[in-house]
């Protein structure tokens, strides 16, 4: 732990949502403080952080003061503006690094990177206008899904093309944004691997979880996932390959489709991931602590699992069920401190331990 | 949950040490905020709290402003000055209530209360001076231990009397403070029960843990404790009896000596307890969340255990072992964010899950 942050050091976190909140709590377990940078007022993470800066990513003075007050910088979301990163990087280490952000901020760049590693992805083609969409429909075929190349999450910025006649509406849905047509993959289920890599190149992965989505948003993750031993091994090796190729430091979520032809990478997220929330109950070191350990230069923890868990997201008015959930046996509730429940908004999650 | 605190409500916590810190983190999991009141600057709990008041317990204005800013008040230590309590109680509910504090702040009052319930304690007698010490030595006998009636913790304010000739030194050690002579109990081991009682009188206890002390400070707690089924049942019934008799709301630690003649109550603590830290790894709801649930008027959680755990305290320069501990398999480290490691100071703990 020669270059490890000492007790009392401060981790700067870009983004003050639930991921930043749970990262902050994990940092506290290691005797580290956090400072949250977030444009929105009263961020959930601010309730459990040592300091909060409320400022926009274009506010150079605020970015500089924030960087000066912390020892290392990390983030809870990948869409950090490039200009802000330039300022922050010039003052403090930003982990995971620039390459991970560059690759994951753009769906085409990400897929080019993954196929370049020899990994399988859905068939894809860039779409910028009617002409390139026609070409893409030729090469990728239908059904497919048109997605904006950047800034998509939780099913936002996506439009299905079940047959060629849906193409015009889908293109209009993109509102002129550079896009990508992805072919449908015939998968039996989706799993995700939460992998981690330390500053000195150590790699560790949590057990893969099996994901079920509803309305484009993660609904449940179940551990263990339905995978045979070779799929399980392949999923972990593949995650390690991605982490090493990016010289990555921190936790990454890797979503995989399970198909008869093998594992296909759906997408990667250079941060702690919703499908890794189950680790809070099933492991002695959860994904949040694993991420903090990595960015703080600590050795990775033992993320081996000692319980079966089903994680369920609480979305929008699911929070009305809190009174019942609090009385359930063997369940651990995690609420994010958000003032208002809106449709599609992630308000919390429950980890149910299966004995 | 009719009278339960809603999402975003604030819990005031008196005391900003590690217990307040872990209570604050637990509150965040339930979507609740915390406000720490602590005389010392930069309290560990302040690093993960929504607000901190740095003021003394004699500062009426600060106490009033603190109370006005929170929905309910709880505490991490039992020695809260009475005048401060009077002010706080007049403005907001204080949980656990006054009776629990009155009983546990004085070793004689506590033992009178326990024996009044028909529970066994060590033989004891009040000691105020040489004359009453001689009487006490007659009735209690030697070996015994002379303790101040108030403000003792972690072996502080205690002096052993192995034979009558140690009496004068022991009395001098008390420096004139009202004291109690407790007879030695011939016990095989010590266990503790962490019990909880909700605002509507529901009672739940965690599995008893077995404690080992070093230099008067808790060293390890091992779950499960060595208890047969009738001792296990008795320990839980006895804790429930104490909680009900005090009309208690919150978590309480009950330390018990295991003897051939049955269970003997060593002492009770009206707060979360060091010997309950193992619950952070072995249960879906830990002692900190259980306490927050109770004081917030929520139903108690299911504290049933799904793993065996050994908790070890990190005292003073034990923190030098952190680099090794972070690399241990199946161990979860919890550090308190204290700036300086002093001899006897609790710096953190490790929960080792036994698979």
From TrEMBL, chains A, B:
The keyword S-adenosyl-L-methionine does not apply. ATP binds at residues 107, 147, 152-158, 182-185, 190, 213, 266-267. One of its GO terms (biological process) is 'de novo' IMP biosynthetic process. Its EC number is 6.3.4.18. Pathway: Purine metabolism; IMP biosynthesis via de novo pathway; 5-amino-1-(5-phospho-D-ribosyl)imidazole-4-carboxylate from 5-amino-1-(5-phospho-D-ribosyl)imidazole (N5-CAIR route): step 1/2. It is an enzyme of class 6 (ligase). It holds the Pfam family ATP-grasp. It catalyses: 5-amino-1-(5-phospho-beta-D-ribosyl)imidazole + hydrogencarbonate + ATP = 5-carboxyamino-1-(5-phospho-D-ribosyl)imidazole + ADP + phosphate + 2 H(+). GO terms for cellular component: cytosol. Belongs to the PurK/PurT family. Catalyzes the ATP-dependent conversion of 5-aminoimidazole ribonucleotide (AIR) and HCO(3)(-) to N5-carboxyaminoimidazole ribonucleotide (N5-CAIR). Catalyzes the ATP-dependent conversion of 5-aminoimidazole ribonucleotide (AIR) and HCO(3)- to N5-carboxyaminoimidazole ribonucleotide (N5-CAIR). NCBIfam families: PRK06019.1-1, PRK06019.1-2, PRK06019.1-5, purK. HAMAP family: PurK. This is N5-carboxyaminoimidazole ribonucleotide synthase. The lineage of its organism: Bacteria, Pseudomonadati, Pseudomonadota, Alphaproteobacteria, Rhodobacterales.
């Amino acid at each position: 732990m020669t270059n490890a942050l000492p007790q009392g050091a401060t981790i700067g976190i870009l983004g003050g949502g639930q991921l930043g909140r749970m990262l902050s709590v994990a940092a506290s377990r290691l005797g580290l403080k956090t400072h949250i940078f977030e444009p929105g007022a009263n961020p959930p993470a601010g309730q459990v952080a040592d300091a909060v800066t409320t400022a926009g990513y274009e506010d150079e003075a605020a970015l500089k003061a924030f960087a000066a007050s912390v020892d290392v910088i990390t983030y809870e979301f990948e869409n950090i503006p490039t200009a802000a990163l330039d300022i922050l990087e010039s003052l403090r280490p930003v982990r995971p690094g620039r390459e991970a952000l560059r690759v994951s901020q753009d769906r085409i760049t990400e897929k080019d990177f993954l196929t370049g590693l020899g990994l399988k992805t859905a068939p894809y083609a860039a779409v910028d206008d009617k002409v390139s969409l026609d070409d893409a429909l030729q090469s990728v075929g239908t059904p497919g899904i048109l997605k904006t190349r950047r800034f998509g999450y939780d099913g936002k910025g996506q439009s299905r093309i079940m047959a060629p006649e849906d193409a015009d509406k889908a293109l209009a849905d993109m509102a002129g944004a550079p896009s990508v047509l992805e072919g449908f993959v015939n998968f039996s289920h989706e799993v995700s691997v939460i992998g981690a890599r330390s500053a000195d190149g150590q790699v560790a992965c949590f057990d893969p979880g099996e994901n079920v989505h509803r309305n484009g948003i993660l609904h449940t993750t179940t551990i263990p996932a339905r995978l045979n031993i070779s799929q399980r091994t392949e999923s972990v090796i593949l995650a390690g390959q991605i982490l090493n190729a990016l010289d990555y430091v921190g936790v990454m979520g890797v979503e995989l489709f399970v198909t008869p032809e093998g594992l296909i990478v759906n997408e990667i997220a250079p941060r702690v991931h919703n499908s890794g929330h189950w680790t809070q109950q099933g492991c002695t070191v959860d994904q949040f602590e694993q991420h903090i350990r990595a960015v703080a230069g600590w050795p990775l923890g033992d993320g081996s699992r000692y319980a079966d868990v089903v994680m369920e997201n609480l979305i929008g008015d699911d929070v009305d069920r809190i009174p019942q959930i609090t009385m359930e046996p063997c369940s651990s509730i995690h609420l994010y401190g958000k003032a208002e429940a809106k449709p599609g908004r992630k308000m919390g999650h429950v980890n149910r331990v299966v004995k």
